[in-house]
Structures are given as C-alpha cells and as structure tokens.
Amino acid sequence: MTSREEAQSFDRLAAQYDRLGELSNDAVGDWLPSVIPAGPQLGRALDLGCGAGRHAVRLADRFEKVDAVDLSAAMIRLARRKRPRSNICYLEAGILDVEGSYDFIVSSATLHHVPDLPVALSHIKSLVAPGGQAVLVDTVSPRPANPRWWLYGGQLRKLAHNLVLRGRAEAWEIFKLSTGEWLDHRVSDRYLSRQQFEEIYAAAFPGAGFTRVGNAHAMLWARERCSG
Q1: pLDDT averaged over the chain?
Q2: What is the mean pLDDT of residues 144-157?
Q3: Residues 50-100: pLDDT tens digits?
Q4: How far is the C-alpha of 64 from the C-alpha of 45, rounded, in Å?
Q5: Residue 149: exposed, middle, or buried by beta-carbon count in 10 A (0-12, 13-18, 19+)?
Q6: Cα distances (Å, whole numbers) of residue 7 to 13, 70, 91, 193
Q7: Residue 95: other Cβ atoms inside 10 A
Q8: Do 203 and 192 touch, CB atoms closer than 8 A?
Q9: Listing from the earlier edge strand, what are the strands of the sheet with 102-108?
Q10: Which of its termini does the chain have fewer beta carbons within 10 Å around, N or C?
C-alpha cells in the first residue's frame, strides 16, 4: 500500500483480500521463482506492498533476509500471524520510507496506488544493489478506470465458470468476496495501459525488459556490478 487513504481501505479488507488470494490463481507467485537467480541462498530481498506475505515467503526460500513492507497495519499483522518466517521482517512503512541496499526487489499490484509514480520508481531504483535486480509487476488495463457494471459482469462470468470447475460452495465464496467491499475498492483504482506502463517504467529503468504475467505486466531490470 502506498498512501494512508489506500492503507485504511486495505485495513478494512485485509482478511477478505487474503482469503480471496488463497482461492485465486497466483500467476505472479508461480512465476516469481523463475526470475530469481539460481544458486546458493542469496543476500537481501525486499517485497514492496507485501500485503499478507504471500510473495515474501517465496523470497524467504531463496534469500538470507527478506524485508516485507506494507503501509497497511492490518496487512502486516495478518502477515506476521499467518506467514511468519525467521528470515522475514514485516514492516509497516511506505515505499519512500525504505532505505538500504537489496539484491532483489519485487513489487506486485501496488504501484498503481502511488501518488507520484516516477518518484516512487526513482526511489526503488536507488535501493537496488550493484548486481541486483528489480522485478516490478502491476495491473494494466486498456481503460484508466473500470466501471462497476463491467467489473460486476466479469465476476458473474467467473461465477458461472467456477460453478463448473470448483463447485457451488467455493464458487459462491469467491463471488461474494469479489463483489462486496473489494469491488468498491477496485472501482476507485486507476491503471496504466501496457504501452504507458512500458514508457514510464523504461524512463526510470533504462534497458529494462518487459513481459506479461497473467493479466498483469512486469518489468525486469538489473543494475550492473561495480567494476574494478
């Protein structure tokens, strides 16, 4: 989370959001291990906008120390309770509050919340250690905002699909979680198109690569190692 207003929204939705995550396919989480460098356990990693820690625990399998940061106090409490690891430090903080040097930085479904994206991207870049990597993933959409009727219709279609694949109880739970307060939150979200995403992120991270991850878009960038 990246603003106090957004944090308060997620404070109210923390348990619902995490339960919906448990019931949903995590394309980013499944993809993430494929972009972490191979080899022995690595140094320090950072998860920006960690939510309830779903991706932080994946990082903890590969890194000696993981800082997992979120502005929502409720999300941090939930992460500490449900996904504790001895090498994860869950911190209630904003992106611009983070200092230090990290070998791997990931952020997923967070940066569309920031009030000044170029400033946030510049700060994230400053946190990448020499030889380190930044993997920034976010939702993109052909339209800046999605109207309620469009979002609700998508959930009705998903309900019909899930009734066949998952059964009535689970399909209905997903539908209720997706169309309650969470739908109100999604109506307020504002997104970049894929083209806008690549233009803005490439300006901050020259030489970055881009790829689709499920319905989201990802930027991958590596800082050169210091010579000499």
Answers
A1: 89
A2: 80
A3: 999 999 999 999 999 999 999 999 999 999 999 999 999 999 999 999 999
A4: 8
A5: exposed
A6: 10, 8, 13, 24
A7: 24
A8: no
A9: 88-92, 63-70, 42-48, 102-108, 128-139, 216-222, 209-213
A10: C
